Please model this.
Amino acid sequence: MINDKNRIRFALPGKGRLREPAIELLMKSGFNFRAKDRNLYATCTNDDIVFIFVRTDDVPVLVQSGVIDCGITGSDLVIERQTEVKAVLPLDFGKCRLCVAVKEDFNEKNFSAFEGKKIATSFPNITKKFFQEKNINIDIIEMNGSVEIMIALGLADAIVDIVETGDSLRDNNLKIFCEIGNYETQLICSKALADDQRIEKIKKRIEGILIAEKYSVLEYNIREDRLKDAEKIAPGFESPTVSKLDEEGWVAVKVMVPRKETVSVMDALANMGASAIFETKIVNCRL
Ligand code: PRP
Model:
């Protein structure tokens, strides 16, 4: 299956915080496969794709080299690995910060406190550049994981690592000294496949689910002379669909509204005389 040239090779995080949300998103997007814990690949049973489970930080290099066609990884890792790949679609999970973290009782406020200190990290390139720009000399200790324990072990004075919920720092009695950057999870593909229709299809399928999860459809009836004001409150993802009603001077409107705003938009529409206001959740969509 892995050598089947007709199948797109799609890299997924084999472990870590991105694995489960990535698998869940792809399954919701209509790709059927069984992701067993220790399997290194899974064949998609309803499309020409084989999913390959690798380390999240190896995805950018594998995609750049072309041995893998596309994959899910963090934008932090694309930058750290200094890879040239195409960012196809930002995904709505795994947003994170790369931070300098120190022991909870660390009280220094200035970067000069790091001069000559040891910093453990899986992000040596980003870390080096960050401290170089501040004219601080540091000693980088490159790790492949479990970075948070390195201060307690006496190996490092500080760490640079990903923070998402902050649980890992708290569990290890560490705190954030400063943020280096904000990153997100992405679907990436190799530059050679930038315009490939198969990648475009994967993108559209995933995008359909991401939009469906963020938006609802609101339907309501309103007097035609209030339509412009109503459209200001709910302009829609694209423009609203408006149809005439039998009752003279009234129209029916269908519009997409960000799900977190639906209740306040419904209140505002009702206040301007709209009636029969219904919210419908979207299961999937193509726009
Ligand atoms: C990252 C990072 C931290 C953790 C932070 O590891 O290295 O350990 O997530 O997340 P939190 O703030 O929600 O606790 P990841 O799970 O991606 O796997 P890794 O250890 O293999 O890098």
Q: What stands out?
A: The chain is about 25% helix and 30% strand.
